[in-house]
Amino acid sequence: ENGVYVFKNGYLPYYSVARNVQGWITKTGKKLNVEGKVQILDIEEDRLLVRNFNKNTVNFIDFDAKQIGETYSEVIKDQDRYIVKDLQGKWNVLDKALKPILQNTYDLFDATLLNQGLYIFANLGERLQFNDYGYVKIDYIITNRDWKTIATDINYIYNVYNRYNGTDEKSYVEFVESL
Fold it and tell me: Which stretch of DSSP H or E encloses residue 32?
């Protein structure tokens, strides 16, 4: 079966394996390139979400291939908003206009219940505390998509395991970074 993929705005995407270039052709026939090892993650009417594997970052760009807003280390699309992790490792949520929704940022975000419309966030203390079995005690906050708080100070969430097995400072630092 043959066919042509067309972006929502009518632009035609293309990819050249030999030149490691991809981009799109506008309705007027102008060819725009995004160079490097880049993956298009999402397409909106006025922007694209792209992962740059060369820099290990995620950006929003317009259809002139110019960056819009901040650079992130991770972005998760959730309906008409984006859950973003900035380059300092802090999580927030952006609205459709790419403006932060949350007043506070968080150290952790868990997407386990995202399909059910629930956000799980947490901040880590100065030094982590562990129970007798080696699992880290984290005070999670759970909200719904309307930012109504469902639960706070939840230490453990079923099927979310954060167990520490190390004994030295290096393994502790690696464990915290993995969270």
Answer: strand 31-35
What is the full DSSP assignment across 34-55?
EESSEEEEEE-SS-EEEEETTT
pLDDT tens-digit map of 6-25: 887 888 888 877 777 888 88
Kindly tell me the number of DSSP H helices and DSSP E strands found in the chain.
Answer: 1, 15
**Cα separations in angstroms, 2 against 9, 83, 165:** 21, 36, 53
pTM of the complete model beyond 0.85: no
Contacts 24+ apart (CB under 8 A), 61-68: 61/34, 63/9, 63/11, 63/24, 63/26, 63/32, 64/32, 65/23, 65/32, 65/33, 65/34, 68/98
Position 140, amino acid: Y
b/e code 17-47 from CB counts within 10 Å (16+ = b): eeeeebbbeeeeeeebebeeebebeebeeeb
Find tokens 């609205």 and name the residue: 95
Q: Is the pLDDT of residue 56 over 90?
A: yes
The amino acid present at 117, given as its one-letter code, is: G
Contact status, residue 118 vs residue 150, Cβ threshold 8 Å: yes
| Cα dihedral 168, 171, 172, 173 sign | positive
Cβ–Cβ under 8 Å, residues 135 and 162? yes
